[in-house]
Amino acid sequence: MFSPEIDYTGSDFSASIKSMNPSFLDGGLTGIFIGSYLQSVTPRLSLGLEAVWQRAAVGYGPEHAVSYAARYKGDDWIASAQLLAQGGVQTSYWRRLTDKVEAGVDANLQFAGLGLGGAGGMMGGGRKEGVATLGAKYDFRASSFRAQVDSQGKLGCLLEKRVAPPVQVTFAGELDHVKNTAKIGLAVSIEAAGDEVMEQQEKANSAPPPPF
């Protein structure tokens, strides 16, 4: 897997270009290319689009699709909506409840059976369904806990704990009530940072918690 990506942020816009496994070795351009652009219309409202172009092999014609998005940012909340190219709508709402608690809800509605580039696309399918997901995040002193549940009976949680300035441990779990399956995972990440950054993190971890 080879995936180069370029991001650029201007004064009132952001743009990115990403590709997955681009190649000219087969006598033509193949791979997946994704370009996105988000423009601020007002200080709170932003509009954008995302274009996808892909070609699995030289013998196949390229497929393409365009999705449109809108985002509105309040003082402590953000609402967004996206019109998907495969025939669907995705909406989300995020809000900061307190300094330590964040919550959000996401709804994904598939109302048409159109795939990427039309019928028969790799992202296609004749599904007509909707999924709603509710999630929350709580920040502790040196860790954070995330949990979410969706309308299909799937419950997930994630705990990130920093045991030392360069070491972080992540526990993840998922329980699917419909399929009667469960998953659990553990990850350890080690960050390479300078002495100054590590000293700042040590001071932050050793500082007393703020009074409630």
Structure description:
With 212 residues, this protein is mainly beta. The protein folds into 2 domains: 1-135; 140-212, N-terminal domain of TfIIb (Single Sheet). It is 6% helix and 59% strand. It is built from 1 helix and 13 strands, in the order βββββββββββββα. The chain has one helix at residues 195-206; strands spanning 5-9, 13-23, 30-40, 45-55, 63-73, 77-84, 88-96, 101-110, 129-139, 143-150, 154-164, 167-176, 181-190. It has a 13-stranded antiparallel sheet with strand order 1-2-3-4-5-6-7-8-9-10-11-12-13, with no helix packed on it. The longest helix is centred in the C-terminal third of the chain and has 12 residues, at 195-206. It is globular and about 55 Å long. The termini are far apart. Mean pLDDT is 86; it is low at 114-124. It is a multi-pass membrane protein. It is found in: Mitochondrion outer membrane. GO terms for molecular function: protein transmembrane transporter activity. One of its GO terms (cellular component) is mitochondrial outer membrane. InterPro entries: Porin_dom_sf (IPR023614), Porin_Euk/Tom40 (IPR027246), Tom40 (IPR037930).
Low-confidence parts lasting 5 or more residues at pLDDT below 50? 114-124
The proportion of residues in beta strands is: over 45%
Reading the helices and strands in chain order gives EEEEEEEEEEEEEH
Gyration radius from CA atoms, angstroms: 21 Å
Count of helices? 1
Sheet of most strands: 13 strands, antiparallel
Distance between the termini: 48 Å
Please list the strands of the largest sheet in the order they lie side by side: 1-2-3-4-5-6-7-8-9-10-11-12-13
Determine the structural class based on helices, strands and strand pairing: mainly beta
Question: Considering DSSP H and I runs of 4 or more, what fraction of the residues is helical?
Answer: under 10%
Number of strands: 13
Shape: globular
Mean pLDDT: 86
The figure for the number of domains is: 2
Subcellular location: Mitochondrion outer membrane
GO molecular function: protein transmembrane transporter activity
Main location: mitochondrion
Membrane topology: Multi-pass membrane protein
